[in-house]
Design brief:
7-stranded mixed β-sheet, about 750 residues, alpha/beta
């Protein structure tokens, strides 16, 4: 008998005894389900503590637990408990055990370590000390030691570190029981098999079949198919241990091969053929669907499952009633909060409108997701997906006697009216990217831009502004849910092409900074014969300011044979238009490496060569130059460079800038006069400088602009989609007074 320093003995293993005490470990929140399983297999004297569920069982019952448990992490034979587990304590505890009574010299072994302790910095070191203790114990008893096989041992020893305590056990399942053997890599953020089984149990599967024998099962975010496959295994009474190739506790001296074979045969005889409707899984990712089909075949449930590529947000229910259980993307799997809001808002609307009569269970990272769904949960259960705390939310979607009312009808009517009017205008003008809604209704503070890609696909760029503090957040979320659903219904855009962002007050160029997103998918649009790249995911702005469309066309038409200077050029769309229109030279200046590279790509997309170089060089730029430099600093030096003159200058500064790469900040109302006076030094006597700003309540200081004439051309630079007060920008044509 080995006794810990706390005086807690563990009886040595006696192969002649009728039963023994074992321990089933469970992930956070799963212990009650494991206990229920063990009791169903005939285990006795169940007792739960922080280590897991202790139980007594004879060998046949133990084998049934090993083969049949869907939720347990491991099933162990505890051997020694001890306190203050440093390296020496691990060695002493393992060496004092009589290992030859547990397995023979011809059996290979390995040591796993779980948990952590302040006494041990590296778990690998703790495992080595246990291994050394086992080897030395064998040498003391037999003069020899068994071999170690870390990859595929006959016997697996587990050291569990639990803070100031530790335990050494035999792992009778020879590893985690969640490894059924049917799944490969599993794709991104896979759901462990035993957690999937636990979710299904809490959701009421397969008991649901007792009252609804023809119930349809569906997972619309199936990924690699774990939930669907586990549901099929449960429905067919397939013990998960039957799937584990070569699974048997053969290296352990207590193993009875004949009894094991009889228990395996008993488990195989319990498997039932499935005569209900195919269990369905779907996912947007074609690769995930292929992996799910392969895993289902490996699990032996390929005939009773079906997987297809589909978007959950447009999926039609496959039956009038059924059970939908899913692990939709969340948190790290999605990349950013706005995308999460979009997904759950649209999912809630889809469930409410299309899945009446269904029982729904969703694993979410936070209970606030229930609010985003707009559904009231009937049951909530806490789980852990790895270290991430999650909740299983269950909903009863009530069958409607009449079709569901259209979401956000006032918003939908306004959007439909706008789209009908602007679509006619856009066709006449040859415009493919334009704004279709701009906070027209105070209750829906959204901006919606429609982008048609070169390949004909249509995207919506949706930006939500913060609701006033007087608006109840729950009401604001409900309006957003309705608005997002209405957008899809009115425009026919696919959910994957609806790009939603939250827009808050920005300073300077922070609106141009990269946002956290799981995946960015840039595409090309065509505007007045120019091919331009836009990105509706990675940045708050798209790379193409739609309100400047008339100005780009104006300069495209005016710049034939002329030279253009584009200051604060952003992605240089203005310069590309001028170049396509036949400009003799374009020079574009910006401080951002990212946007100059984007600008270079825009030039190349139109068959034009553009040169990126340091703006501090006094060498005259080439035909299409992209200069990396602070605009003010560059203008202060460029005025002294011979030949640096332009017939057209486009000046669109930020409202505010305090770039880390410059010492001085910039504020357009305060500094616009200095900036304009610097720029006009590079203007030919008959040239025009176009100055634009989107600062609200901006006042141009005419008196300070000595010798210049400034004409407000704002109305001339606004197309039909931007003729709502207030204008998105103000614009002036500035010329030398002598050139009027």
């Amino acid at each position: 008998m080995t006794e810990s320093s706390s005086g807690e003995p563990i009886a040595p293993f006696d192969p002649t005894a009728d039963d023994h005490e074992y321990l089933a470990t469970a992930a956070g929140g799963l212990a009650p389900l494991v206990a229920r399983e063990l009791e169903g297999f005939g285990a006795l004297d169940l007792r739960e503590d922080r280590a897991g569920i202790h139980f007594r069982a004879d060998l046949a019952t133990l084998y049934r637990c090993l083969l049949g448990s869907r939720v347990a992490s491991r099933i162990l034979l505890p051997l020694a408990r001890f306190d203050e587990p440093d390296g020496d304590a691990c060695y002493v505890a393992s060496r004092t055990l009589h290992w030859p009574a547990l397995f023979g010299l011809n059996a290979t072994f390995a040591v796993d370590v779980t948990g952590k302790s302040s006494h041990i910095g590296h778990t690998h070191f703790a495992g080595v000390r246990v291994k050394d203790g086992i080897a030395d114990a064998f040498r003391d008893a037999t003069g020899e030691r068994p071999d170690v096989d870390a990859a595929d041992p006959d016997v697996r020893v587990l050291l569990q570190l639990q803070g100031r305590q530790a335990q050494v056990s035999l792992d009778l399942g020879n590893g985690g029981l969640h490894r059924r053997g049917y799944r490969g890599s599993g794709g991104d953020a896979p759901l462990r098999e035993n957690l999937a089984a636990a979710l299904l149990m809490r959701a009421g599967w397969p008991e649901h079949l007792e009252t609804h024998p023809d119930a349809q099962f569906l997972d619309p975010f199936c990924g690699s198919g774990t939930l669907v496959i586990e549901a099929a295994l449960m429905a067919t009474h397939t013990a998960p241990g039957l799937l584990r190739e070569g699974f048997r506790p053969h290296g352990w001296s207590g193993h009875d091969a004949g009894l094991w074979d009889r228990c395996v045969a008993e488990a195989r005889d319990a498997v039932r053929a499935w005569d209900g409707p195919a269990l369905l899984g779907s996912d947007r990712d074609r690769g995930a669907v292929a992996a799910a089909r392969k895993a289902a075949q490996a699990a032996g449930v390929g005939d009773c499952t079906r997987f297809e590529q589909a978007d959950a947000l447009t999926l039609e229910p496959p039956a009038d009633h059924g059970m939908l259980v899913s692990n939709p993307p969340y948190g790290e799997r999605l990349g950013n909060a706005p995308e999460l809001i979009k997904l759950y808002s649209l999912l809630g609307e889809r469930l409410r409108s299309a899945f009446g009569g269904w029982h729904v269970a969703l694993l979410v990272a936070d209970t606030t997701d229930s609010q985003r769904l707009g559904l009231r949960a009937s049951h909530k259960h806490r789980f852990y997906n790895g270290t991430l705390a999650c909740h299983l939310l269950q909903f009863e979607i009530h069958q409607r006697d009449e079709p569901a009312a259209a979401p956000a009808p006032d918003f939908a009517n306004r959007l439909q009216k706008n789209q009908r009017h602007l679509a006619r205008w856009a066709r006449r003008q040859g415009v493919t990217c334009y704004r279709i809604y701009d906070a027209d209704l105070a209750e829906y503070p959204l901006q919606i831009d429609r982008y048609e890609a070169e390949d004909g696909t249509v995207h919506l760029h949706v930006q939500e502004f913060a609701a006033p503090a007087s608006v109840d957040p729950a009401r604001a979320e409900a309006r957003l849910r309705g608005a997002l659903a209405a957008m899809l219904e009115v425009t026919g855009v696919e959910p994957a092409h609806l790009h939603y962002k939250q827009r808050r007050a920005q300073k300077g160029r922070s609106q141009y900074q990269r946002t956290e997103t799981a995946e960015a998918a840039p595409f090309t649009v065509v505007e007045h014969g120019c091919r331009l790249r836009v990105d509706l995911d990675a940045y708050l702005d798209s790379g193409l300011f739609l309100d400047h469309r008339p100005m780009r066309l104006r300069l495209q038409q005016e710049c034939r044979g002329l030279r253009l200077l584009n200051l604060f050029c952003y992605t240089a769309a203005v310069s590309v238009h001028a170049a396509v229109g036949g400009a003799r030279q374009t020079v574009s200046v910006d401080l951002s490496n990212t946007y100059l590279e984007w600008a270079e790509a825009n030039f190349h997309a139109n068959g034009l060569e553009a040169e990126i170089r340091d703006g501090r060089s006094r060498r005259l730029p080439g035909t299409h130059a992209l200069l990396r430099e602070d605009v003010v600093r560059w203008l202060e030096g460029a005025g002294d460079t011979p030949g640096m003159v332009f017939e057209r200058i486009f000046l669109d500064p930020p409202t505010f800038s305090n770039s880390k790469r410059t010492e001085d900040d910039f504020e357009v109302q305060r500094d616009h006069v200095h900036l304009i006076l610097l720029a006009v030094r590079l203007l030919t006597p008959d040239g025009v400088l176009y100055f634009s700003t989107n600062r609200r309540r901006f006042e141009l200081d005419h008196e300070a602009l000595t010798g210049l004439h400034a004409r407000d051309i704002t109305r001339e630079t606004l197309d039909e989609d931007y003729r709502r007060p207030p204008p998105p920008h103000r614009c002036w044509a500035i010329t030398p007074a002598s050139g009027e």
